[in-house]
Amino acid sequence: MNFPAGHKEDDFVDIKGTPVKYTVFQNGIKTTMTLKNYKEEKIPEMSLTPPSGYELKTMDELKAMQGGGQ
What we know:
- There is one protein chain.
- The chain has one helix and two strands, in the order ββα.
- With about 70 residues, it is α+β, with helices and mostly antiparallel strands.
- A hairpin with a 2-residue loop joins β1 (about 20-25) and β2 (about 30-35).
- The longest helix is centred in the last third of the chain and has 7 residues, at about 60-65.
- The radius of gyration is 17 Å and the shape is flat.
């Protein structure tokens, strides 16, 4: 399977492939992403309609939910 070059994260734009493991730090939180497996298959048509009960949040509200301020 061929992944598009640099398809994930701006930091990897010059990589000719896909990282299988990397660590990022965002808002003081360390996250390690690891590709464990992949499966090539057709996906069903997507719906961009928000699910019922969806609440629109501003960026400030999202930051507050993570314990951050302005």
